[in-house]
Structure formats: C-alpha cells, structure tokens
C-alpha cells in the first residue's frame, strides 16, 4: 500500500494551505482545554441521547446503546475540491436514478448487454412488483448517501474514489448536523476565523425535496417519517429528522389504508398522508406483498403506491442500484444514460461471480478487501492485510461456496486526518458520506459526514465497528 494521504499535513512538513489557519489555532491550544472540551461534548451528546444501537454485543449477547465518538478536529475541504466532488455526485446519482427507471421499464441497458440481465433479474433486491410502475419525476432514490474515500499516490497527491452507493435508507445525516452544532458550541472563535459553508439548512432541503415529489395534483402534501420503532439502530435520526422538518414520526401501526389512500391516526381523527420518508426496508413495508409476518409495515400500502396515490422515499426496489455487485457498472451507466465520462472514479473491483475475477481474488486474499454484495455496517467482510491466516482460510471456504455473494477490491490506503485520541493527536483513516437529495432538482449541503476509524491502523470506519465521526468543513474561500 502507498503511504496514506494526510488531509492536513504535507509529507515535506507544514500544512496544506487550506489548513494553515486552523493548524495555527490548534497548536496554541492547551492539552487540558482540549480534554475538557472532549468531555463536555460527550456529556452533551449523552444528555441529548445521540446514540447508535449495536446489536449482538459480544459481551452481553444483546443490543446496546452507545455514543458515536465525536472527534474535536474537523476534516477541512477546500472549495474547489468540493465543487468538483459535488458535480460528480450529482452526475452519479442522476445516472443511478435513470438506471432504476430503466430496469423497471424498458430495460435498455440490459438489452444493450452493458449490465448482465441475470445479475439484475435474479437479484434478491430486484422487486418485480415495481416493473412498469411510474414514480413522480422518475426519481427512485430521493435521499442517497455516497461513500467517498481518498487514496494517496506515489507523488504525494491524493485522488477521490466512490467506495459505495447507499440508495435505500442511508443514515448518518443527523450526526453531520449535530457535529456542526457541537463544534460551533465548543469553538465559536473558529467560525469567526473561517468561512465554513453552512449545513443547518439540510432539514429544509429535505422537506422541500419530499414535498416536490408528492403525487400529482396534491398542492399541499402531508409528509411523515416512517420508522420501525425505538429499537432500530438509527431511531435517534428518525425522530431527529421528523422534529427538524416539523412532520409526524409514525410507525406502521399508525397508518392504515382506506378507499385507495393512506391515512395516519391522529387525536383529531384520520389524516391523509401523501409522502412517506420511510426508514424501513422493502421486506417489511407491506405484509400483503412482502413478508407476511411483518409487524412494522402497513397492509395495502403497496397497492396505494402503485396507483400513484402516495409517494415512498426512497422508492421500493432501489436496493438493486446499491448492490455491491452492480457498483462496478456505474461508470458505464453514466456514459450510457448521460453520454458523459464519470467525474468521480470507482475503486477497481473484482466481481467474484466472474471466474477470472474469482481466481484472482482467491490467489490474493491476503491483499484484498472482500465484501458481501448485500453487506452493510462493516459486517461480512474480510480485510486481507489485517486478517490472520485462519480468518483468511475460513473466508476462502465461504467465497468458494458462494462466489456470487462477494466482490473484492484492492486495500486502498485511505487518507488520514489528525484525530484527538487518548494518546494525543494522531492520524486515523477516514471516509466521507455526502447526502444527495433528488427531487425536481439535485441538491446537497456542502460536505457530509466524515467517519473515522479510531483504532490505530484500522480501515473500518463504520459506527457499528467502533468508528467515530468528525465535523466536515467546506471552506467558502
């Protein structure tokens, strides 16, 4: 692996220009002050209830509520880098929405042989129930979270890559908003010294996006956030976004279908619902269509949806576009649907259903990262360079038994950012999840959620694996 690209520090000494002012400030801060600020942040986050549920805790055997560690040192992105990234994100999500419309309608990309038809039509994330169903504006993924990493080059520069696309129910935006609020509370002087692009208007953009995709003829739509309930790992975020948008937070039991429309129960009687920002997987949405044992959904919801009388954000069936086995084809989608070259590159990927790719992967397991195509949260993956021989051999058996279930990628030397850990300030690997909103327009707030692998040397940034988060600054000058 190459030496990691350091977001703040130059290999030759000193700081990158966009960090100069911040580095000067940081160097003048007493150690005791920083420790006190970190303790203060933890106390406030705990009081507010900003937690993340981790299931199957190995010590207790049960799920536990944990704080997501918050780091005091921001990740700073200069304005020119953000402009390029923003253009690449808009291009990518637009192409993915075009792809979703296509595979549920004419299937031109399959007929052209660009994406193998069996890889779509036999995929568990492909929902045949959506074939021929029109959704408002042709937009399937209204809220997308695109994971971006930066890898170092031999000349000391760094290039951005898309690591994966999250188009179903991407989470984490509440932490982005709360991180900014915390930084402004702890270090107000920094925001007087830097022109940091704001992110606090995200809930307004989200609500505007959801309202813009209401069913035809609805001029003043009623929007709700649908949650599986308080035991879901991201429940804090569901409640937070509903509160920030000023809309109702509902569970499946709060909704019912009557005479071709969806209603929610209120103290003033039934109220028609027009747009549902659902944080529930497809399988649990409607027991009449998907899992009959689901207690989380609303019976009859899919019929109303297919009739165009309610909008679901994100649409049913979006999972086919963030399946990791489909990811390698996204650059070709951009060229096919938009006639453009991708602005943001993919990480080179080996699709293990392909015999040659499988053979290469099996021969280089100790060098690669291997992931389940439907995996999430850092589970079901092998990080070859960090794995023992026993772990590699156990994973090899799984891979041989079910190669279609895996992809493999080079172990990128993810960029690092100075991070405040127990021993002081040290580099830790990071990624970035910008949130892209698609309605009548494609919009996003500057930056996103920076996740950080707090364990020294670790490349796994997921909160479920002990990762933390940072505030992300996009400079306006």
UniProtKB/TrEMBL annotation:
Write down the InterPro entries for this protein, in alphabetical order.
Answer: ATP-dep_Glu-Cys_Ligase-2, CP_ATPgrasp_2, UCP005522
Q: Give every Circularly permuted ATP-grasp type domain span.
A: 74-453
Q: Which Pfam families match?
A: CP_ATPgrasp_2 (PF14403)
| Name of the protein in question | Circularly permuted type 2 ATP-grasp protein
Q: From what organism does this protein derive? A: Roseateles paludis
